[in-house]
Amino acid sequence: MGANYSATLHEAHNMPTTPQIKRSQVNAFHSSTKWKLHFDSLKDTNKLVVIDFTATWCGPCKYMEPVINDFAAKYTDVEFVKIDVDELMDVAQEYGVQAMPLFVLIRKGKVVDKIVGADKDGLQKKIVKHRASLY
C-alpha cells in the first residue's frame, strides 16, 4: 500500500507541471530598467504586446489575473506583460495610468489601443483585432 501511495503522490505532484510547459507566461517586471530593456528589444518586432497595469490592492485587477493567464496560454504569439503601478510608478506615469486595470496594446513601440477596466470580452476583441494584423 505504501508504494502505491507514493506513486500516487508522485504522479499528482508531476501533473500540474505538464500544462505549464505548454503555456505562454505573463512576464512581470519589477525593475524599470529591465522593463525598458525588454521593451526596446520588442520595438523592432511586429509582435503584439499587451501590458497589464495592475496593483495588489485592486479588486478588478485580481479578477482579471486568471483571464490574462488564460489569454497568454491561448494567444502564444502575443507578449503579455504585468506591471504593478506601485512598484514601477515611472512606467505607469509614462503610459498615463489613471485607473486600473489598464491594458495597453503596443506594436513596434507604439500604442495601438487601450482598454480601461475589467472588460474581459472587450480586451479579447482588441487582442484578436490587433494580432490579426500580424498575418
Structure description:
This is Thioredoxin domain-containing protein. Residues 6-132 form the Thioredoxin domain. InterPro entries: Thioredoxin-like_sf, Thioredoxin_CS, Thioredoxin_domain, Thioredoxin_H-type-like. With 135 residues, the chain is of the alpha/beta class. Helix content is 48%, strand content 21%. The protein contains 6 helices and 5 strands. It has helices at 2-14, 17-22, 32-42, 59-74, 89-94, 120-132, and strands at 26-29, 49-54, 79-84, 102-107, 110-116. It has a 5-stranded mixed sheet, with helices on both faces. β4 (102-107) and β5 (110-116) form a beta hairpin. The radius of gyration is 18 Å and the shape is globular. The termini are far apart.
Number of helical segments with 4 or more residues:
6
Described by the principal axes of the CA atoms, the overall outline is: globular
Distance between the termini: 55 Å
User: In this structure, how is the largest beta sheet organized?
Assistant: 5 strands, mixed
Residue share in helix: 40-55%
